[in-house]
Structures are given as structure tokens and as C-alpha cells.
């Protein structure tokens, strides 16, 4: 669907120039780009001097044909092509190969976690031989879908095989009605039965098209396909009931540290105010990826919606599906208490494999029915659930990264190899490995992690800094590995340029040296373009010496890559916690 939108967008003005010869299309790759900026100009050639042929909107995706410097050639699918700046888009993380992979657990009690790292919460486990769909994979972790749940498992204990990618055909439906979701978070399934695959979830007050009814299930339109929801959690409207939710009943809470409010819904609009994290404003109107808010009485402006969290002014209680839901004990000695709270008396000690029906929710605790019929409470973050009850989690250090924008800069790339190790390791490849592992951890924690380059591509230093400024990054992390004529040189160094960057350097460096066993070379001033010209908090990391053969063996290992990306992740979380 997104690719179709892109094709229409790129071809719109190209087709209007009928006197111009068609641009030949090169063989297309398996890669796609996704637009991350609110709008992106598509040009006739790889440079700002070329005329604009159309604009893409945030979320559009297009197939990649070619790359030249900082520019990516994309296909319109209509015998035409156009060029976009690579710092305004991001290549699709999920490759076609990954989408058609199936994994199998190769060990008993394979733990499922909420993110790719040992610090993320355990949300379940798999028995040996159980198969699942692979959603994404990096060298240490695999994101999986098992039944109606998602999570991450260690790739060390997984085997893979390819499966046929069978796409469902879209069916056109007529005589539809409208419906509104009444549950807080409602499961949408591929078939009218609880055991079918989970297609996704819909939030309360979402309006959907309703097609048919089968037993206790209602067929709706979901992501362009047919989906099914329980009848009791949807309110059907008559066709003449066209009332829409009053947008003035919605509040926007600022999630960025500082956000520009503009006169028009465009990045070219004049800035009329600056608003700050935590402030709340009434939404008056929405247009694309922009919302009009009331800054003060009689004063309005437009802000980018990806830095705003929308909530109802008058939230009301709503039902959460608990029917047939159970908790499953995953650790021996799990405590069940007389009421919610860690200080309540223990009434039962559960063992791994036991399960109990869920009666209700109480904050981050489940109220369950024990085998003798008595009620008890168990902390949601130490058990897993089945059925439609939500998986409750205890907010850990990850909560300090939620809604933060982190720009990760994998040093070098393309024609710039960086340092070459004694065993032939190219720095550009190693920095990209580290960046991808860090990106997966940050995204799983609720941050928006953006890479300055994708794959083995070249990005200029100004383009890297431009990404930091354009995305109003809360932190910019430039990743490098060192080299020296002295083959005995070793260790980790962190650099900052501006005084306001020093605390970030200190927090990240201290986290690194606490978790990795390399020489501590300290954090210090460094005159590097990507931190010197950066107006955001930015640091440059040198994470070990490729010119030292012993250190090269260490830093290229998967265990080091996992540890060092985890240390940067922890350092970022601690930094934001300290600056709350």
C-alpha cells in the first residue's frame, strides 16, 4: 500500500512533463526506503540544484534503484525515477529474506524478552522444537512472532529456514457500516476465532469500516485487509450517523525537549513559538503529520505530530478483554500475595508451568484465582499471560529512553573504509554492526533511533550533522574504532567538543568502562566535525584499536559487540534519568 502511494507521488509531476524523455530505470534491488521526515522533495537528479518533481510524505516507501553520494534513486514503478536525499529517509529494516524466515527453538525454556538484550524483561519462554515467524534479526538477537505475541530471543539458540511468502489478496467490500472501538486496546484477528493469528490491535475510539457478522465476531477493514474483532467491544453506527469526534476534546503532550511551533503546517513555516517537554495543548485541527494547537487564548500554530502524544481531555474507564485469560508462572518460587504490592503477605508460592485464570487488573498486578478458588495477586512483570489480557511490565531503565530521539552515526562507509585492522577488518563495517545493535535496543525501549547512513553507503560529514539538527536529536552518538602506528596502542576514548556535551560524554564513557574490559583512555575534548558543528548533545566514541591484533580479535567478536552496544544504551538511559 505504501509503495503504491509512493509510486503515485513520484509519477505525478513527472508525467506532466510529456516533452521530457523518460529516464531509464536500472535493475531494481530488494531494498526499500521509508520516508522519516514530514515531507521529502523528490528531484530529477542527485543534487539540490535539480528541479523538484514531487513531495513524499512521512511513512511512504519506495524501491531503491541506485545510490550516488548522499542521494538515493527511487523507482516510481511507471518507467520513471527520482532522487531523494539519504539523510531524510531510512532504508527498510525488514529485508524480504527476513519476512520469509521461520525459526525453531533449539533449547528448552528459550526465554522471550521485550527487547534485544539481557536487561530487557522476560515475557515468556519457548519449548525446544517450537517454531515461530522471524520478524527481524541481528547478529545476537531475533525478533519473533509466536501466536499473538512478539518478543526477542537469543539467536544462539535458534535455527532458521525459509518459507513461502504467501500474501493475502485484498478483497473489495461493499455496503459497509461504521463502527467505533469501545475497549482500551482491542485485538484484531485474521479469522473469527480466538485461536487465529493476531493481525494487530486498535485503540479505544478508533473508527473502522464494518462489513459483516459471524457469530460473536464482527468483520472490519484493518490495514487494507479483512480483520475480525469481538462484537462486544465495538459500537456499530448507522450509515447516517456521521458525527465525528470533536478534535477540541483531544490534548497534545509535548515529548521533545523543545519543539518549534510554526505558522503553517510545513517545515518552511515561520516559527511563532517554542514549546517544551511535558506541556499540554488543545488540538484544534490535523493536517497530514501536523496538528494545529492553541498556544494561548486566541493564538494558534502548527507542530509536528511525531513529537506529540495525544490523549483525551476526559478519559473514561473502559473494558479490557480478560475472558479466558490466564497467567503462567515462569520461575519456581513466584510469590502470590493477598493484595497488590510487594509488602503484602504471601499466600502462595508458584512453580514454573503453573497457570491461573485472571480475574482483574490492579495497576501492574494481576488478580488471579488459585486452584482452591481463593483470590491472589501476582506482579505482572514476573509472569506471562495468554488470552487477551495485556502483558504488564515494570518500568525499568528503559523508561528514561521513551520518546527520545537518538541519532546514531556509524563512522565512514561507502568509499571511505576508515581504519583497516591487522586481520583486514574494515572500520566502516564494524561501526555499522555496533550501530544496528544499538538501534534495535533503543527502538525496543520506545526511543526513535535514526542512523545517518544505511548499509555500505557514504554520507558526508555535513549530512550527518544535518540529520542531528533536522531531527532535533536528544543525543547524537558517532561510533568509530581507532588505529595507530604504535601496534600496542589500545583502549576506549570518548570525545566531546562543546561544554554542554561533556555530561553526555561522561555518562556514556563511565558506562562503557564499567562493562567492557578494555583500557580506559578517558573522556576528553576532541575537534571533530560531527561534534564541533553539532548544536545538539553529541559525542564521538573510539571503541578499541583495530591496529592492535589482540584487541581487534576482541572488538570484532559478537560478545563484545553485544556488550558495547548495551553499555552505550545503559549510559544513555542514565544520562536522561539524571537530567529529568
From TrEMBL:
A Pfam family assignment: SH3_3
Record field: transmembrane: none
N-terminal signal peptide: 1-22
Sorted UniProt keywords: Cell wall biogenesis/degradation, Hydrolase, Signal
Gene3D superfamilies xrefs: SH3 Domains (2.30.30.40), Zn-dependent exopeptidases (3.40.630.40)
CDD domains assigned: MurNAc-LAA
GO process terms (BP): cell wall organization; peptidoglycan catabolic process
Domain (SH3b) ranges: 30-92, 98-162, 176-238, 249-312, 323-386
Any one GO molecular function term: N-acetylmuramoyl-L-alanine amidase activity
PANTHER family for the chain: FAMILY PROTEIN, PUTATIVE-RELATED, GLYCOSYL HYDROLASE FAMILY 19 DOMAIN-CONTAINING PROTEIN HI_1415
The protein, known as: N-acetylmuramoyl-L-alanine amidase
Amino acid at each position: 500500500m505504501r509503495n503504491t502511494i509512493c509510486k503515485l507521488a513520484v509519477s505525478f509531476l513527472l508525467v506532466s512533463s510529456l516533452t521530457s524523455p523518460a529516464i531509464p530505470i536500472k535493475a531494481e534491488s530488494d531494498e526499500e526506503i521509508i520516508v522519516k521526515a514530514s515531507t521529502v522533495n523528490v528531484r530529477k537528479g542527485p543534487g539540490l540544484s535539480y528541479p523538484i518533481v514531487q513531495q513524499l510524505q512521512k511513512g511512504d516507501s519506495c524501491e531503491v534503484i541506485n545510490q550516488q553520494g548522499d542521494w538515493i534513486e527511487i523507482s516510481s514503478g511507471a518507467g520513471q525515477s527520482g532522487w531523494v536525499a539519504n539523510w531524510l529517509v531510512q532504508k527498510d529494516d525488514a529485508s524480504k529474506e527476513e519476512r520469509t524466515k521461520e525459526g525453531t527453538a533449539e533449547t528448552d525454556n528459550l526465554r522471550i524478552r521485550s527487547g534485544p538484550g539481557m536487561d530487557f524483561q522476560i515475557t515468556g519462554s519457548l519449548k525446544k522444537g517450537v517454531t515461530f515467524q522471524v520478524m527481524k534479526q541481528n547478529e545476537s538477537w531475533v525478533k519473533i512472532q509466536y501466536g499473538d505475541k512478539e518478543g526477542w530471543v537469543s539467536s544462539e539458540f535458534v535455527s532458521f529456514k525459509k518459507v513461502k511468502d504467501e500474501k493475502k489478496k485484498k478483497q473489495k467490500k461493499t455496503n459497509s457500516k461504521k463502527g467505533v472501538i469501545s475497549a482500551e486496546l482491542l485485538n484484531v484477528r485474521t479469522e473469527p476465532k480466538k485461536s487465529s493469528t493476531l493481525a494487530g490491535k486498535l485503540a479505544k475510539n478508533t473508527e473502522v469500516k464494518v462489513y459483516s457478522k459471524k457469530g460473536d465476531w464482527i468483520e472490519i477493514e484493518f490495514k487494507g485487509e479483512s480483520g475480525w474483532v469481538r462484537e462486544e467491544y465495538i459500537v456499530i453506527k448507522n450509515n447516517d450517523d456521521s458525527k465525528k469526534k470533536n478534535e477540541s476534546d483531544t490534548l497534545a503532550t509535548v515529548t521533545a525537549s523543545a519543539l518549534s511551533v510554526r505558522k503553517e503546517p510545513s517545515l518552511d513555516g515561520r516559527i511563532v513559538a517554542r514549546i517544551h517537554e511535558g506541556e499540554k495543548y488543545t488540538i484544534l485541527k490535523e493536517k497530514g503529520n501536523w496538528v494545529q494547537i492553541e498556544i494561548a487564548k486566541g493564538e494558534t500554530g502548527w507542530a509536528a505530530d511525531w513529537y506529540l502524544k495525544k490523549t483525551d481531555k476526559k478519559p473514561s474507564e473502559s473494558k479490557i478483554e480478560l475472558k479466558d485469560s490466564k497467567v503462567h508462572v515462569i520461575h519456581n518460587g513466584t510469590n502470590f500475595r493477598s493484595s497488590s504490592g510487594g509488602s503484602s503477605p504471601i499466600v502462595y508460592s508458584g512453580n514454573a508451568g503453573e497457570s491461573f485464570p485472571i480475574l482483574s487488573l490492579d495497576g501492574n498486578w494481576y488478580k488471579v484465582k488459585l486452584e482452591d478458588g481463593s483470590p491472589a495477586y501476582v506482579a505482572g512483570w514476573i509472569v506471562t499471560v495468554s488470552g487477551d489480557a495485556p502483558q504488564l511490565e515494570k518500568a525499568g531503565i528503559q523508561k528514561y529512553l521513551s520518546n527520545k530521539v537518538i541519532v546514531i552515526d556509524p563512522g565512514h562507509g561507502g568509499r571511505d573504509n576508515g581504519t583497516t585492522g591487522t586481520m583486514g577488518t574494515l572500520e566502516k563495517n564494524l561501526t555499522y554492526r555496533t550501530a544496528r545493535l544499538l538501534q534495535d535496543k533503543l527502538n525496543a525501549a520506545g526511543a526513535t533511533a535514526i542512523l545517518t547512513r544505511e548499509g555500505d553507503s557514504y554520507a558526508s560529514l555535513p549530512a550527518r550533522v544535518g540529520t542531528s539538527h533536522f531531527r532535533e536529536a536528544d543525543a547524537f552518538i558517532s561510533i568509530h574504532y581507532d588505529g595507530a602506528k604504535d601496534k600496542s596502542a589500545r583502549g576506549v576514548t570518548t570525545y566531546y567538543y562543546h561544554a554542554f556535551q561533556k555530561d553526555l560524554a561522561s555518562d556514556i564513557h563511565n558506562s562503557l568502562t564499567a562493562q567492557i574490559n578494555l583500557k580506559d583512555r578517558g573522556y576528553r575534548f576532541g575537534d571533530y566535525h560531527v561534534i564541533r558543528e553539532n548544536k545538539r548533545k553529541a559525542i564521538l566514541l573510539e571503541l578499541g584499536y583495530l591496529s592492535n591484533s589482540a584487541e581487534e580479535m576482541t572488538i570484532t567478536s559478537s560478545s563484545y559487540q553485544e556488550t558495547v552496544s548495551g553499555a552505550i544504551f545503559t549510559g544513555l538511559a542514565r544520562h536522561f534519568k539524571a537530567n529529568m
